[in-house]
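Just curious: can you write a single protein's sequence together with how it folds?
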Amino acid sequence: MKRFFGKKNGEYILIENDELLHLSKVLRKKIGDQIVCCCNDNFDYFCSIENIDKKVCKAKIEKITKCPALPNKDITLFQALPKKEYLDEIVFKAVELGVNTLQLFVSNYSNSSKINIERINNQILSASKQCTRSKLMECKGLINFADILSQLKKFDVIVFANENERKNTIFDIKNIEKAEKIAIVVGNEGGFSENEILKLLKEDVFSITLGRRILRCTTATTTILALTNALTKN
């Protein structure tokens, strides 16, 4: 059953704008068709289309269930801003692998200091529908490396993918499965500078290696998120 994001209005879900265009013009849904609606909350709304016009689709709620695809851990991905083509993949993987918040930041080796937040939010929407998440991952505004250091203090566990680490792996982090708020810090295609690594190591981070091979930032992010999910049952 196709999924659409809308807003709840009493016993109806209202679908507008691009989602309406996709529903009516691309998928050619009609009155009486069954759809699943999401309202950026914890629930799936099973609906029947009652009316469609040029401005809105009105779908009546027939059943409400808790979304089974919701993450059960509060994971924030601190991702050093990579090239656009890498960022596209990271956004999709982060949504699929249960990240709640994506915090992009500019590091010493970032080649850009701008993001297109509208584009990212559209990718989050698309990925959420594909993996059946009812609540959208939040992408926060771009910040500098120095700004992430103070933010890390509010997490139970901070996992730092450190290319200079030679010994510790994610499996060495004790009680990670009990952590509720988890931060994951990953560099971009250029990695971190020595100064940035030293500053991160002064924080209460778990520095881990992802193996002897140097991974692309997209591969590193996907790997560490997948391992975190396996260990925390996220």
Q: What stands out?
A: The first helix runs from residue 17 to 26. The chain is about 30% helix and 30% strand.
